[in-house]
Design goal:
The chain has 181 residues and is α/β, with parallel strands linked by helices. 20% of the residues lie in helices and 27% in strands. It has one domain: Rossmann fold. Helix 3 links the parallel strand 5 and strand 6. The relative contact order is 0.21. The mean pLDDT is 92. It binds guanosine-5'-monophosphate.
């Protein structure tokens, strides 16, 4: 399976260190407060599981699923809620935990929706950012890594539901050359 994939962009160790740093930074920024982590299914599950273990503050978890690419690698721009939060976020500090932000269409829709629910604050923590293909302006409060415009899998990210369990982040296709900024 692994030999059908391309270049490893982020090793397990790089990810481990960066997630720990993010956890420390978030813990410092929200010191004395309680957080609601809103995990965007399904790709962000692995990141969430690691991140929460580096938070030194009370944090609850809730899940949301929104439609994205299906089995293709191109954004359709079609976004809808497939699964909503179980609990209210009114008067809560919300941190949206995303796997990857590409065009930004999915997150823009999600933030718009969450900001209409009277949360005290809504911020975003994205493990991966691919700014080259952004179609809507979005502020990412915490970013793990900025990546070139390549389709990646691993560490929760899939292609047709495969590769989520890989411990590193790797380019899907061996032929794809990632433009470096
Ligand atoms: P956006 O709406 O920002 O274009 O896309 C966000 C969603 O598209 C992500 O949450 C993810 O599900 C999917 N996506 C975008 N880029 C990639 C990528 O490089 N690899 C994978 N596996 N999914 C991606």
């Amino acid at each position: 399976m692994a030999d059908a994939l391309g270049e490893i962009l982020l090793t397990e160790e790089q990810i481990r260190r960066r997630v720990a740093e993010l956890g420390r930074q978030i813990s410092a920024d929200y010191a004395g407060l309680e957080l609601t982590l809103v995990c965007v299914l399904r790709g962000a599950v692995v990141f969430l599981a690691d991140l929460i273990r580096h938070l030194s503050l009370p944090a609850s978890i809730d899940f949301m699923a929104i439609s994205s690419y299906g089995s293709d690698t191109q954004s359709t721009g079609v976004v809808r809620i497939v699964k909503d939060l179980d609990d209210s976020i009114q008067h809560r500090h919300v941190l949206v935990v995303e796997d990857i932000v590409d065009t930004g269409l999915t997150l823009a829709y999600l933030l718009d929706n969450l900001r209409n629910r009277s949360a005290t604050s809504v911020r975003v923590c994205a493990l991966l950012d691919k700014p080259a293909r952004r179609r809507v302006p979005i502020t990412l409060d915490y970013v793990g890594f900025t990546l070139p415009d390549c389709f990646v899998v691993g560490y929760g990210l899939d292609f047709a539901q495969r590769y989520r369990g890989l411990p590193h982040v790797v380019v899907l296709s061996p032929e794809e050359v990632c433009p470096r900024g």
